[in-house]
Write a structure and sequence with these properties.
Radius of gyration: 23 Å
Largest sheet: 2 strands, antiparallel
CATH topology: MetI-like fold
Number of domains: 1
CATH class: Mainly Alpha
Number of strands: 2
CATH superfamily: MetI-like
Distance between the termini: 31 Å
Strand content: under 5%
Shape: globular
CATH architecture: Orthogonal Bundle
């Protein structure tokens, strides 16, 4: 006997499919085809690889491309190192009623918004800011330390804005970890490092991978934090894409650069999943 068709399921799928089609598939296809359009000397649009060749011919483009990738990987790793102890503490150490309140505190940066948060970091990191004034007052330094408009300030801003997206998936994975596994390993004489390496980390790897993918995609595609906190001294590839689209109005070359960034991020995520032995279906669940 055939099962009846669930019309509600298909009805609910329509907005999702429209969202995927109109906001993801169509724009990316347009960007892909536009990236091969090139205006020749006669003013005619022709199919060409010149938009991609210009990326490799100018050193500043591919150096910025590589720097963006390396910094994004590094910030993703830092987000894991910083947030994993917090996630473990909130799920396995303190009581549930206190952990819920602390998770609520972690959501505050999302309420405020990225732009306001970044201006807050500017107040903290500037030459006359809170941190420099405090260090001068206690006598640790005599002159302000240059922290703003550097790679350091850019890293701090990107790390702060992305930590929440790393900690939530890890907390979800840690909450499903049975405490009896840790207790049994401890009773059998396993050290804390052994328990961490052979039980906790393997069990939470899907959550780590899920959080890592989200953080990496957010960081590598960010424009506000690198542009404001990093300034002109910090090169970020999204700024090159922005300049192509809105400064020089060269949409075809900007599309090529955007598609290269998409290929880069997809390749790094695929490589990370291969190295960790994770499948995208398991990470997504």
């Amino acid at each position: 006997m055939k099962k009846p068709i669930n019309s509600t399921f298909y009805l609910l799928m329509v907005p999702v499919l429209l969202w995927l089609l109109l906001l993801i598939v169509v724009p990316h296809l347009d960007m892909f085809f536009r990236s091969f359009r090139f205006e020749n000397d006669d003013g005619l649009m022709v199919f060409s690889l010149n938009n991609y060749l210009s990326f490799f011919e100018d050193q500043i483009y591919w150096l910025t491309f590589v720097q963006t990738a390396l910094y994004s990987i590094g910030i993703t790793f830092l987000a894991f190192v910083v947030t994993f102890p917090v996630a473990f503490y909130l799920t396995k150490v303190i009581a549930k009623k206190y952990s819920s309140f602390m998770v609520l505190l972690l959501l505050i940066p999302i309420w405020i918004g990225e732009l306001v948060t970044i201006y807050g970091w500017m107040i903290l990191l500037s030459d006359n800011g809170v941190i420099n004034n405090f260090l001068i007052q206690i006598g640790l330094i005599d002159t302000p330390i240059v922290m703003l408009y550097t790679n350091f300030s850019m890293t701090i801003g990107l790390l702060y804005m992305s930590m929440l997206f790393m900690i939530i998936p890890m907390m979800s994975a840690l909450e499903s970890l049975d405490d009896s596994l840790i207790e049994a390993a401890s009773d059998l004489g396993a050290s804390k490092w052994t328990i961490f390496r052979q039980i906790i980390i393997p069990y939470t790897t899907p959550g780590i991978a899920s959080g890592g993918i989200i953080v990496f995609m957010l960081v590598i595609g960010d424009y506000v934090a690198p542009n404001i906190l990093g300034g002109k001294s910090s090169l970020w590839f999204t700024e090159q894409i922005y300049n192509k689209f809105l400064a020089t109005f060269n949409w075809n070359e900007g599309a090529a650069f955007g598609f290269l960034l998409l290929l880069l991020s997809s390749a790094i995520i695929w490589l990370a999943l291969r190295i960790t032995g994770q499948k995208l279906e398991r990470v997504g669940s």
